[in-house]
Amino acid sequence: MDILNLLHSSFLPGKTGARLRESKVFPSYAIIPVSGVLNLTNVNDKIVFDEARASSYDKRNDNLAPTRDALFLLMRTVLGDLPESARVLCVGVGTGAELIDLAQHFPNWHFTAVDPAAAMLDICRKHAEECGFTSRCTFHEGYLDSLPQGEPYDAATCLLVSHFFAQRDERSKFFNQIAQRLRPDGYLISSDLSCDMNSHAYRSILEIWVRMLTTAGFPMEDVEKFCASYGRETAVLPPQEVEAIIESSGFNSPVQFYQNLLIRAWYSRRQ
Ligand SMILES: C[S@@+](CC[C@H](N)C(=O)[O-])C[C@H]1O[C@@H](n2cnc3c(N)ncnc32)[C@H](O)[C@@H]1O
User: Fold this and answer.
1) What is the domain-level CATH number for residue 255?
2) Whole-structure pTM over 0.70, yes or no?
């Protein structure tokens, strides 16, 4: 299936997609974003954060560093009023990009790094060693529910994690677990893929998104997997819906402070 068909069918969820195609709400696109074709034969392959993905994760994302750095600059600015020796919970820390950035800018902060993927967390640990701040980090391989209880945190980060919860109630439970670990008024910085998949904007942005990922060196096979998962294993919801989920999970109204194509980030404070 080539990308035009893909954009016209697979990314539009269920009946809505069929309705939109029939009603010709969306014009045919003349722009083909990549030279190759996408196919969906691997549509059921899950995105797994195993050894192979972990070892290539940083290199590929480094090619998109300017977009990530803009997010981090704003994240640091939002969190700039935290105490001198703040405690920060990094949920789904992966290879540690957000933790490293915060640790470098706030030399007295302490971090708890949580991730169920051993291969990702190992790299995070290695980065912390190389940068010399292991003594300010606690690493927890697993999910939040098995993290030992301790003093409440001043802030939590949760970047590109919650969209992996396909069910809204599970996503809400996840955000609520984070809220339970924060002090009242503590910050949540979260980012997710978010867009109204039924909108013209989504179809347009998706083309640029695919172009950006392939230009950054993501293999076509991975880009296919990512795109095929949107609206399925990866819950790409409209921003208002993500905000409603966060707000119903123990936080005040989230404020969107960043957008890079399909990625949006919010800050919110525990009620
Ligand atoms: C796309 S990566 C993001 C990593 C990092 N936050 C970043 O922005 O580079 C998603 C990470 O979330 C982790 N993850 C998935 N489900 C999780 C859950 N329920 N709780 C905590 N981490 C989870 C995965 O293992 C993976 O390392």
Assistant:
1) 3.40.50.150
2) yes
